[in-house]
Amino acid sequence: MTRCLDCGSDRIADQCPACGLTSAAAELVVRRRIVKRTAFFLVGIIVFVAASQIFPALELDSIQIFGGVVFFLSLALGYWIDYRARKHQEIEALKRIYFGMIPVPWIFAGLLFLNGKLDNSRPVRVPATVVGKVATGAFPRSRRLIVTSWRYGRPFEHIAVDQNDFDRFQKGDDIIVQAQKGAVGIPWVYGVFRQ
Ligand SMILES: [Zn+2]
Fold first, then answer.
1. CA distance linking residue 192 with residue 150, whole number of Å
2. Which tens digits make up the pLDDT trace of 111-142?
3. What residues make up the domain containing 129?
4. Cβ(193)–Cβ(178) below 8 Å
5. Do 110 and 137 share a domain, yes or no?
6. Based on the domain organization, do 141 and 112 belong to the same domain?
7. Domain count of the chain?
8. pLDDT tens digits for 185-194?
9. I want to staple 19 with a disulfide (CB 3.0 to 4.6 A). Which of 7, 47, 118, 125 is the partner?
10. Could you list which residues have their CB under 5 Å from ion ligand 1?
């Protein structure tokens, strides 16, 4: 017993009784659908990266690493499904997982944006000392000030800053970090100031 590549119905003849596609047509249709949804997924990743920088989370680095892992796993899965579809192998379960992943970057982008946008918690202003600086690339918001942490059990925080703040502060400077609690509980950084 095989399943229709497109709609997943059990199929006894070459033509699917549910959607009417032959196995060759179903392969074309399903591969086109995968390409379309992958494009939607890729746009979602771009929106996610942009949204994560508008109200930069305190854990921005971890969030972006997690986003990167989701990105590569999803693309690998998409590629694998396409490969199996070409060989007319069973793809129904993989297809459901993959199509389930497609809106994930959009959901995370919306969550991070609303977390900052709807945040009306009182700002928390904390003193910190700059202990280092890192610039990981040419992307905006890839500059980090490494500062002493005000949170329990953490030695340092990596604060996303713009080029201006990155140049302005040096190792050893005492600064004020304005943090916000976040509307959905993801702490983010409003800005850094001189004491
Ligand atoms: Zn079908």
1. 14
2. 999 999 999 999 999 999 999 999 877 666 68
3. 124-194
4. yes
5. no
6. no
7. 2
8. 999 999 999 9
9. 7
10. 4, 6-7, 9, 16, 18-19
